[in-house]
Amino acid sequence: MLDLFDTIAPADPPFEPLAEGAALLRGAALAFETEVLTALDEITLQAPFRHMVTPGGFTMSVAMTNCGEAGWVTDRTGYRYDPNDPNDPETGRPWPAMPSCFLDLAVHCASRAGYPAFRPDACLINRYEPGARLSLHQDRDERDFAKPIVSISLGLPAIFQFGGLKRDDPVKKFAMRHGDVAVWGGASRLCYHGVTALKEGVHDVLGRMRVNLTFRGAL
Ligand code: MD3
Ligand code: FE
Question: What is the CATH number of the domain that holds 140?
Answer without folding.
Answer: 2.60.120.590
